[in-house]
Write a structure and sequence with these properties.
The chain is mainly alpha-helical and about 90 residues long. Helices cover about 55% and strands about 5% of the residues. The protein has 4 helices and 2 strands, in the order H-E-H-H-E-H. Helix 1 runs antiparallel to helix 2 and helix 2 packs antiparallel against helix 3. The N and C termini lie far apart (about 40 Å). The relative contact order is 0.15. It comes from Apilactobacillus nanyangensis. It is a peripheral membrane protein. Belongs to the UPF0161 family.
C-alpha cells in the first residue's frame, strides 16, 4: 500500500502538477510532504498527515517551512518552523 500511494503521488507530480499553477504555501510542497509522511509513518498515518497538510494549504494561511514531524500529528510542525526562522535570523 505504501508503494502504491507513493507511485500515485509521484504520478501526480509528474503529469498533473505541471499543468497547474504553483500554489503550495509550504516548503516542502504538499506532494513531497505526502511522500515523506508515507515513507516515515506508513501508508495510513502518512496518508492522514498528507491530507491534513493539503487541507491546511489555502490562500488564507501564511505558509512557510513545515517538514514532516517525527511523531504523528495532523497539525503544523511549529517547532521546526520556529527553529528554521531562528537559524535564518528571520522574525
Amino acid at each position: 500500500m505504501r508503494k502504491f500511494l507513493i507511485k500515485l503521488v509521484m504520478g501526480y507530480k509528474r503529469f498533473i502538477s505541471p499543468l497547474l499553477p504553483a500554489s503550495c504555501r509550504y516548503y516542502p510542497t504538499c506532494s513531497t510532504y505526502m511522500i515523506d509522511a508515507v515513507r516515515k509513518h506508513g501508508a495510513l498515518l502518512g496518508f492522514v498527515m498528507g491530507c491534513a497538510r493539503i487541507l491546511r494549504c489555502h490562500p488564507f494561511v501564511k505558509g512557510g517551512y513545515d517538514p514532516v514531524s517525527d511523531h504523528f500529528t495532523i497539525f503544523r510542525n511549529k517547532r521546526a518552523s520556529k527553529d528554521y526562522r531562528r537559524s535564518m535570523n528571520l522574525k
